[in-house]
Design goal:
With about 160 residues, the chain is of the alpha+beta class. It has helices at about 10-15, 25-40, 45-55, 55-65, 85-90, 95-105, 145-160; strands at about 80-85, 115-120, 135, 140. The two termini are about 20 Å apart. Bound molecules: FE2/S2 (inorganic) cluster (FES).
């Protein structure tokens, strides 16, 4: 089952209203704001962005898919990123990823159907001395072990959603 997200049209209007119409140069900034509002770039938002700035859909999709930081699929409220770079890998990163996949019941690159968690893997974020490393909602957790990761994910999952 794939995760579904519903967009609030009023929120979309509100983000668009903060950006001047007919100014294609503002595209990247607008995409950043849309992603901040929805945690990803919904198709409807991309279409409205194109209209708003006077660009074609293809131009907007071209930029949205060019930058790795933009996401075209719904993302979870919590992002769990396991580093699978060499230094982390030799210290057991694969076991961490397996643990997270078991706990969240998704594979790397997927989002839970309730949109609470997205599980990702990266190849080295330049903090090898901390390995094996997991990044939870932007916070680095070094020397990670599967049971500790499980506890951290459990704590987040017990917390009430923000939306
Ligand atoms: S290999 Fe994980 S931070 Fe470098």
């Amino acid at each position: 089952m794939s995760a579904q997200a519903v967009i609030d049209p009023a929120e979309l209007d509100e983000v668009l209203a903060r950006h001047p119409q007919g100014q294609p140069a503002g595209l990247v900034n607008l995409l950043h704001d849309l992603q901040a509002a929805f945690r990803y770039l919904p198709e409807q938002a991309l279409e409205r962005a194109a209209e708003h700035l006077g660009l074609s859909s293809a131009e907007v999709y071209g930029v949205a898919t060019f930058y790795e930081g933009f996401h075209l699929k719904p993302r979870g409220e919590h992002i769990c990123t396991v580093c699978m770079g060499t230094a982390c890998h030799v210290r057991g990163a694969a076991r961490l990823l397996e643990q997270a996949e078991r706990d969240l019941a998704v594979r790397a690159g997927q989002t839970t159907p309730d949109l609470r968690f997205t599980l990702e893997q990266v190849n080295c974020v330049g903090a090898c001395a901390l390995g094996p490393l997991v990044i939870l909602d932007g916070k680095y957790h070094g020397s990670m072990a599967p049971d500790r990761l499980s506890r951290l994910l459990g704590k987040l999952s017990d917390k009430k959603g923000s939306k």
